[in-house]
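Next comes this protein.

***
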Amino acid sequence: MNARILVVDDHPNNVQLLVTVLQQAGYREIDSTTDPLQGFEMFRRQRHDLVLLDLNMPVMDGFTMLERMKALAPDDYPPVLAITAAHDFKLRALSAGARDFIGKPYDFAELLQRVHHLLEVRLLLQGTRARSLHLASHDSITGLPNREAFTRQLEQAVCSNEAGALLLVGMEGFTRINDVLGYEMGDAVLGQLVQRLQAWAPPGTSLGRMGADEFAMLLPAGVAAPALAAGEVRRACCLPVALQDSDVVLDARVGVALYPQDGSDASSLLLHAGTALQFARRQSSQPVCCYTDTIASEAQHGLALSAALRRACEQGEFELHYQPKVDLSSGRIAGAEALLRWRRPGHGLVSPAEFVPLLEESGLIVQVGAWIIDEACLLAARWTQLAPGLNIAVNVASRQFADPQFQHSVEQAMARHGVQPGMLGLEVTESALMDDTARTAGVLAALRQVGVKVAIDDFGTGHSSLAYLKHFPVDTLKIDKSFIDGIARDPGDAALVDGILGMARNLGLQVVAEGVETESQLACLLRRRCDQIQGYYFSRPLPAAQFEALLREGRQLAPAQGIPAPVQPTVLLIDDEPMVLAALERLLRQDQYRILSASSAAQALDLLAQNPVHLVLCDQRMDGMSGTELLDRIKDLYPATLRIILSGQTELATVMESVNRGALYRFYTKPWDNQVLRDNIRAAMRHYWQAHGLAA
């Protein structure tokens, strides 16, 4: 048997007898002594599995030795079988920490039974403890050492000068796999990633899991070109991961710190590798980053900037600038994107690229985002008097959707400032949509019910599936500037823009082209009848006062060379009741249409002959000629003009015949819903623009 046993008794004969009995029972690793001081030293060095300890001894009795053994390892199980001829010592021995007791003279069968029992308990406890220690120090999913255990390994490697390069590998997008596919699939992905890391790792490499999406690799001293090795690790992690029904692809970022150049102890190496990893995560063009003093300086700058951002929130140092969106069918300003700016005391305006990511990382974007929405609602309500139908859009980050109060705060801001449907818009990136699809879709659907418009920002640059377009409540796609830059020169970019425009039209979505800076780009978009543009060609982002001045001025888009100037969308209203005409005129003038009115069929035909008309809205019941008869004639004379009829319930059969003949674009029953009628006429004008343009 492999158990290690120590016998301590001041009588040599007793020692010899016990040793002989144990050997005959099959125990081979037995130490013995008649000196309790020597016995304690032997136990301290070897930590035996069982000690047979006499309690009555000179110099140091068994009780004193028990106390010293317990002091060596207070939390350990003291493996002591107490031996004495004084049976009244039994309770005292057990209270002192002995695990069992046997009296002299010995019953050898009983002795061996008690020895066997104590060793079984001892070994079982050791196995349980070892298992518990393993679970406490290793990740339960991957089996790799956790952060604490890996740090201890790193400390040992540093002390023995065996450390080389420390790599921290961050997996981008792993959280989304758990959210979308479930934790079982996420665990399967982790398993394959660990297998790749283990297969690639050179001999002597230590691996650890430092967090949900972060792994550590300690390369041994002597591995050449650690940066190249980090690049190979990243490429291995970026290969598709095969799951049951499909493959998933993750991006990886790697931070590298070298021993001893970047740190002479474990904590500094981990700190500097972590700093390099965070830099790599922020820099899309540099997925592998080695620690340098410059990076450290930038990290310190980031910390200072984060502290300053918190003060900015408290002291109101933020402001909004507004970049106009121009409707290409009319040339007028149709809306604006509200863009956050930070006027830092002593520094002036800070670049959004420098501070917006920090807002999102810190979670301050939730607080700042609520202020942005409130400020945009305040000004949208004020500016609607200058530009009816104006829509102010704000950017929304994924952290805001995760806030359970987000929907409520938007609705409160709209109610507080009297924002009407269509006046507020939310711009969301594809990646933000995908972070928590179910929750995001629910929030957007609820806000859309109260009139908030939803746009997908930077469309075409994210990793989402186009299938999600039919699941999310979306009104607008914003084509990313990277596609617009090359639309006049690169057939590939032009084809992508054509594809997005075609898809959007089939789905009934508006399209805004971002980053329009040149007349050539504008001309290309006009020929393709894109709905709106945004960019420096028309205006840079402006402070609120300057944007308001632009609205008061009535600034319009100058026509591109060789492209006919757009004319004002024109609606002809036909009804023989003056009160109905006046009500329709008041309703539709809010959308800045040119309004023509006729009270008879003859007057309507004269106006059509003298003016370009894009849409006719006609009553069915009129003296002399019914609305369907008149629209049949208009169809023959002006086939491009869209024709809509207002009808009572009793006339539906006649109207349906006209619809079937193709004489009508739409029909509505009286009384009409103002908002529905406005929305549908706007959609009809967009349809006309996409099919024919609105040139004079």
Q: What stands out?
A: Residues 570-692 form a domain with the Rossmann fold fold (CATH 3.40.50.2300). The chain has a mean pLDDT of 87.
